[in-house]
Amino acid sequence: MINYEAPPSRRSQFQIKTVHFLLLMLVFCTCKQQPSEEIVDLPQIREKKKIVVATCNNAADYFVHEGEMMGFQYEVLSELGKYLDLKVEFLSGKNYAENLYFLAEKHCDIVVSGWLPSDEALQTSGVDTLYMERLVLVQRKPDNWKKMTAKQIEECLVRHSENLTGKTVYASGWSPLMNGKDFVADRHIQFITFDGISSEGLIRLVASGELDYAVCSWSEARLFAQYFDYIDIKTELGELPVGWLIRPASVELQQEIRQWLATFKKTSKFAVLYQKYHTGITIQEMVENKFISGRKGIISMYDEIFKKYSTEIGWDWRLLAALVYQESRFIPDVRSRKGAYGLMQLMPATLSYFGTDTTATPDRHIATGVAFIKYLDRIFVQHVTEKDERIKFILASYNIGPGHILDARRLAEKYGKDADVWYDNVDSCLLSKSDPKFYNDPDVRHGKCYGKETFTFVTQVLERYEHYKRLTNVN
Questions:
Q1: Architecture of domain 303-472
Q2: Per-residue pLDDT tens over the stretch 294-303
Q3: β-bridge pairing 50-54 and 87-91
């Protein structure tokens, strides 16, 4: 059952254009830098050590597949992050308009625009086109199409935009498309958008007969139309440029990205990514697998188990999922070089301590891992009372053992750092335990260790958790 807003069939085209105009003016006026306002450009972004990108998740640009973040925009932006030496943080608005608001209010630095608007007000903030996206009409074949010849079927389908005159075509409100004037010359078509539904949802509504026509990008339409052999997506309505929007005042950022993009688009890496997500069959095979988020809030086949046991430790189930993915990639019988086994990658001695072994079910292994987390929580709850902060200590201890983390806390206290805060405090003391000056300190009881892997482990689990929250969008 699909939940969506009823199509606003009585909304006039004038109202649609008015909404479009107001949205563009809001963004343009808000984004214009006032003399007294603080400029947020590349130098300020470098100080934060991260660049924030607002996007709407979909099955081509930003999604989770079997626990791993993927998508054309996700991978291209990751390459940009490497070039700028900045962490890329993603922010997902409810729709495109909300993402533009985030940009205007400086909550993000880049907005991924599925289709770049051609209006002058926004062109000043656009970065060079990544690629041109074909837009296709989604329509049903005749009810008895299987008994018809190919010619008869063609005669029943719309193949030219002029044949849509007087008809209503729906578009997802998650895209910047508002009325179609950017790509269809025929102004007599009524294009209507509504929020709360994706391109996949539109295709399903056309398939069920609730809508007659919809417009989607070919990249998305080809993925979901494969489920309905009576859906046709061969009619092209035009194309629009796909790219990124940046605040007009962020001049240095725009220049830096334009220069990088001009070079990156000529590389084999870009060609491979485009082929992977926009022309090849790889992404189609992924969509056939039900463990792709943004569709039903699914991360893995173990989600229900995560939900069942995460309540015992007061964690969001997606945080537990992020930990398990980091440990085992959701492979139930994987064994590490050190002997750790299973989804939770527990050592045989730990499994035995909690009354299980390598022959236990995935359910039992996850329960055992949760029991171990509860054990670690009891160690640190007396020291680190703030829950979110304590989670970082638990994750670190899960990776390297609580003894080394307690050593790092003692070093933090000794050298004037905050022993109850992980980042830039205890984590740096853990990293120092590879130095004889520190691992020979009398307050260090568990000797030498290499903490870089643990530092990376904590960061990656928490980053993955943030992605999972955005991409599943469920509690």
A1: Orthogonal Bundle (1.10)
A2: 445 788 899 9
A3: parallel
Q: Considering the chain, what is the average pLDDT of its residues?
A: 83
In 36-104, the DSSP E strands lie at 50-54, 63-65, 68-70, 87-91
Q: How far apart are CA 390 and CA 278, in angstroms?
A: 42
Comparing 277 with 32, which gets the higher pLDDT? 277
- 364/197: higher pLDDT: 364
Rounded Cα–Cα distance for residues 411 and 429 (Å): 6
Instruction: Return the beta strands (E) in 153-251 as ranges.
Output: 168-172, 190-194, 214-217, 231-245
Alpha carbon distance 20, 14 (integer Å): 10
Amino acid identity at 228? F
- For the domain made up of 13-131+243-288, give the CATH fold: D-Maltodextrin-Binding Protein; domain 2 (3.40.190)
Write the single-letter amino acid at 162.
Answer: E
Spatial neighbors of 45 by CB under 8 A, at least 6 apart, are 51, 86, 109, 253
The radius of gyration of the chain's CA atoms, rounded to the nearest angstrom, is 26
CB contact set of 271 (below 8 Å; sequence gap of 6+): none
Asked if domains 13-131+243-288 and 134-241 share a fold, the reply is: yes
CA angle centred on 63, ends 57 and 64, rounded to 5°: 145
**Alpha-carbon 119 to chain mean position:** 27
Indicate the pTM of the whole model: 0.68
Do 39 and 274 touch, CB atoms closer than 8 A? no
Which of the 8 DSSP states describes residue 335?
B
- Residues making up the chain, counted from first to last: 475
- pLDDT of 294 reads 47
10 vs 149, residue with greater confidence: 149
Q: If you average pLDDT over each of 24-33, 191-200, 425-434, which comes out highest?
A: 425-434
Give the pLDDT confidence of 118-157 residue by residue, as tens digits. Answer: 554 455 567 778 888 888 999 999 999 999 999 999 999 9
φ/ψ (deg, to 5) at 299? -110, -45
Q: Which CATH architecture has domain 134-241?
A: 3-Layer(aba) Sandwich (3.40)
